[in-house]
Amino acid sequence: ETVFSKRKQMVIVGVLGKSNEAHCNKLVEFGMLNIQPNLEDIAVSDGRVKFYFRTEGDTLFLHFDSTFDNFVMLKLAEEMMSANVSHPSAHFINFNSTIRTRYARVLLFALQVCHVLILVETSVTFDLSYLSLFKSLKIIREKYVLKFLPEMLKNAGVGSFMGKECRLASPRLIFLLSLPETLQKPSKEDIQALEVKLEDFITKTLRNEFIITNNSAMSLFSIPKGKQFVFYTQTKEQCKNTIKDMMMMLSVCFDDPSQTAIISKRNEALMNKLKPYEFIGFPDFKVKLDHSEKRSNSRSILDLVQMLVIETLEPIFDEEFTGVKHRTKCGMTLPTIGHWYEMFQFMYQLFIENPAKSCYNDFEPEYKSYLENFHALVDIEEQLFREVGEQGLELAMLKYNEMLPMHYSSSYHESKYQDALHLLGQYARGPQLKPCVEKLKGYCDSIWISGKQQCEYPSLRGNPCLMGKHKSLDASDHSSGVIYVSSCNCGRIQGHREDPYTIRQANYEFYQIMAKSCSNCNRLEHVQFPVFEPSTSDFRAAEFINKNLSNLMTFESTGRTESDVNNINLYRSARDSPFLSSSERSQNCFTNFSFNTVSYDGPDRTCDGAQAKDRNEELYKKDWALNHKTNTEEMVGIENCNIDKNRTTDSKNQKDEMMFKVSVAEKMTAIALDPEPRFDSVKHPSTTEYLPGMLHAASPAGLLPRFPSWSLVCLGSSSIYTHNTGLPEHVQSGFLSGSNYLLPWDVNVRLEHAQSWAASYEKIRLRKKTNLHSSKSFERNNSFTLKIFIGVEYECLRGHRFIMKSPDSILRSATEIARDSGSNVVFNDMPIYFPCPCRNAINNTAQLMRVHIITPKAPVNVIIDPKVKIFQNNMQSSFTFNTGVAQSIKLTQSSYWILRLPFVYEGDTGPLEPPPEVNPNSAVIHGVLMAGMYGIRENELNEESLLGS
C-alpha cells in the first residue's frame, strides 16, 4: 500500500525464465531473495506475479512464475496425469504444447507491462526455442492485440498513458545465463569475451528472423545498441549455504535486546560450543572485514539493470538503431505507480485469467478471436505434426489401394492395412499420430466392407470362400476355388473335385458324379449301407443332447443349412432315449444287404407310411434272425498254434490259426431253446427324423443318416490282381511307383468238420469233372493255410496313392514285401493321416481312403467291421465312426473287394478338420483305423459255395 500510494514514477523490471529451485527464485543473483524453499509458505503456481521494491532506486521488480520453472512444470504434469487416470502417461508433445502456450501468455503479458525484461536461463547457451515463441508473439500482437486492446483499455478507463502501442515502451531484453561448475574458476576477461560472442550471435539471429528491426514500433522488443545485454553468473556464487543462513537467523534471534542477560549468556555459551569457526553464528553486518577489494572485482546483474534504469529515466532514450543523431523520448512512458497498477490489474485479467476459462462467448469478437487462435499460432509443432500427418495419411491411403483384387479376405485386408500403417508411421508424429491411425483404419475398413469383402465361409477343409460377401441358405453355394484330385469308389479313374462345404458333397455327391464317368462303378456289386428312408415328406433332422459333449446337436451347430433338413422346426421325442448300451445299439441298427448291380437311389425317395412300417419290420426280422443264427451257429476262435512241418515251411511267419467249432446238434438245440423274438419291444429306425451327422459309437439308437459316407464294392474275381506285377494302371490309377502291391496275410485255419466239407467238395467236383482226385489228404489233416491279400491305401489331395506296409512306413518296392507282411497292418491300428512322399510342400498330408481285400478260394468268408477313431484335443476326446451295419460284413470268396472310407469326418459339433502337418512317428495321435477289422467265418455248406470256390 505504501508503494502503490506513491505518485512517484518508477521503472518496471520483469524477471522471467527458468529456475531449478522449489520456490522458483530467480532473484538470488540480485541479492534480494535469500529465503529458502522450506520457509516458503505459499505454493508456486503458473502466472503468479510477485512485486519487489528497492528503496535504493526507483525500480519495481516483477517476479513471474511460469511453466518454464521446473517445479511449476512438475505441478502441472501431476495435475494432467491425475485428471486423466485412464491414460496417466500423457503424450509429451501435448504436455510440451501446454507449457509453451502458457509460458507464451506470461511472456506476452510481461512485454506489455515492463520497461525492462530479464530472461533467466539455467544453462550456458541461448535457448533457440525462444525464436519460434518470439515470431508467434510478434504476429499475435500485430494481428490481434493491437486491434482489441486499445478499445478495451479505453472502455475500462485505464492505461490512457500507454498510447497507440498499448505498452510502456519497446522493452529492453537482458539475457541472464549461468556458467557451469568447473574446478578452475574462469577469469573476468574470459567471461566478458564469452558474453560479447553470445551478444553478436543473438543480435544476428533476431535480425535474420525479423524479430527486431530499426523501427521500435514494429519490433516485439529491443536490445541496447553497443551495450551489454548478456550477463553470465557463476553458479557457486548463486548457491547459498542453507545451514549458514539458518545460523544467521538464529544469531539475530539471540541478539534480541528483549532477552534477559542470563538467557543471553547461556545462549552465547551454547553457540560458542556449536560454532566450527570464529564469527559463525553472528550476522554479516557484525563481522568487521574489509570487503573493498572483493566489491571492486565483483560482477553483479543488479549493476547492469541499474544502468539501464538510469538510461530509461534520462530525457533522451536510445531505443532505436537508426542513425538519427538526436532522438526524443518517443514511445517511452513512465506512469505513476498507482496508475500503472490499475492498468496492470486489468491487463492481468485479459492476458492471464480469461484464457483459463472454458468458454469465450461472452467476450468481444476481436478478443474472442485472440483467445481462440492463440494456441494455434504459438504451437507451431502441432501444426507441423498435423501437416506431415495429413501427407502421410494421403500416401498411406494410396498404398492401401494399390493392386486391390475384386474380393479379398480379412487377412489380406489386415496385411494391406499394416503396410499402409507402416508408411503412415514414417510421416505422422506426435499427438496427430493417433487421429491419423483412426482415420486410416476407418478408410481401409470402409473400402473393404463396401463391395470388396470376401465371404470367407470356411469349407470342411478349412479353406475360405473366395466369393464376395453374400447370404446363402445353402452351404453348397460357397466356393473356395481349391481343386483336389480324388479317385472314384472303385479306384479305376481319378477326377477333379471342388473343395467340399457339406458332408454330402464330400462323402456322397462327388462319388455319385464320378460313377457316371467310370465304366465300373455302376455295374459292380456293392453293399448298400443303412440310410434314412422317410415315410413322409415332412421329415426333419433330429435334435438331441450328446452325453459325452453336452452339446445340443442341431443343423445350426454343425454348419448345416435349411436345404439339408427341409424344415427348421426341430423337436425331440420324449419317448425316445438317445442313450443305449452298445448291445442295444447293435440290436436296433438294421441292415439290408443287397449284392446286386442296382445303384443307390438316394435318400430323397418317399413311400407310404404303412409300406415303410412293414418293410422295417421285415428288415428287422431278417436282421434278428441273422444275429441269432450268427450267435448260435458260428463261433469263431483265433488262436496261435504250431503247424505241422509237413504242411508248412516256416512256423515263424504263421501267426494265426482259425478254428471253427460248429456242431449241428448244438445248432438245433440252440434254435429250439431260444424263444420267438418279441418285435414290439424293440425300437425301429425312425422314418421321420434323420441323423444330422455321421454315424459313430455315441449316436442315438434308431437314427440313420440321409446318405452313406462309406462304400464297399466288389471289382470281380481275385484273378484281377497278380502279385508279380501288382495293381495295373488301367485297374487302379494314380499309384506311386513301387507302391501298387498288396500285402499277403497267411492265416492257418482248422475246420472242426473238414471231412464232411471235403467229401461234399469232392462229390461235386467229380460230378463236374472226369478226372478223379482223392480227398484222403483232407481226411488225414483238416488244417490248411489261407492266403489273403490286404492293402491299406492312402491318397493325398493331389491324387497320389500309395500302400502302407506298417503303421509308420510306406511300401516303396515289391522287394520290401515279405511273407505274411499283411500281419503288420491287420493287427495294428493304422493312422488315418500320413505324410505323402510327393514333393508338394503344401497340403502333402495323405488320408487313408481305401482298404483293398482279396478273399481266398476256400470254404470260408472274410468278414470286416471297420471302425475309425478320430482324436481331438491331444487325444483327450475322440469319435469312433462306423458304417452302421449291425454285424460284421461278409465278403464273398475269391473276390476283389474295395472299402472306401469317408473323405471328411463330422462329429456332433461339426466337421473334424485334418491336421495341417503330420509327423510319421506320431501319426496315430490324429486318428486310426482300429485293429480287429478283419475276421474269418466258415462258409455255408452248399453246392453253390463249393462251386464258387
Automatic annotation (TrEMBL):
Function noted in UniProt: Involved in nonsense-mediated decay (NMD) of mRNAs containing premature stop codons.
A Pfam family the protein falls into: Smg8_Smg9
Name the record gives this protein: Nonsense-mediated mRNA decay factor SMG8
Keyword Transmembrane helix (UniProt): yes
Segments passing through the bilayer: 106-126
Keywords in alphabetical order: Membrane, Nonsense-mediated mRNA decay, Transmembrane, Transmembrane helix
Protein origin, superkingdom: Eukaryota
GO terms (BP aspect): nuclear-transcribed mRNA catabolic process, nonsense-mediated decay
Family in the record: Belongs to the SMG8 family.
This protein's record includes keyword Transmembrane: yes
